[in-house]
Amino acid sequence: MTSLPTIVLVPGAFHLASTMDLIKIQLEEAGHDTTVFELATVNQPELKVQDDVAALTGEVLHPLIEDQGKDIVLYLHSYAGFPGSAAIKGLSKTERLAAGKRGGILGLIYQSAFIPKPGDTLLQMIGGNYTPWQDANLRTGLVSVIDPKATFYADVAEPVASEAADRIRPQSMLSLNTALSHTFYDIPAYDDRRVYLLTSQDKTLPSFA
Length: 209
Description:
Helices cover 29% and strands 18% of the residues. The chain has 8 helices and 8 strands. The chain is globular and about 50 Å long.
């Protein structure tokens, strides 16, 4: 019997790992081992997108793939498309099979996520300015969400909406203003293995992003 892949969930900016609790439970009930990675840049003003790349690679992807030989599917939400698109370097199942190695990334799921090109910053991709629902504090180096429930959970029932909104934290400004030098989502290994989930009622991302 073929085992199911491990699902790695990466929530977006402002979100603690616990915001993925409900989907994690559902995936585990369906038989998937599931790991949630919390961004290093949440509430850490000195950290950049490169710190998220290093943490995702070193704390989650390499241990699961290199050490345990796991096959995984990587789920990237919102800002997580930035570090996720770089952290996957050399870790696709196709590349690892060709090298005689076990495990690897089977596919990528982007949910309402940014898919950056080298040189892009998130701020550039949303038009160069912070959005009306964000409060950027130059003194602290953090961006906060003014009304998390209305912004992220407007169509979610109570008490789940309030509980989720209470878990929202400020995000490093640097993480939104620094660019990646390389991305790897568009290599042939991920052809027909990339999925984009577009949420039609999203209140956070401009359509052009």
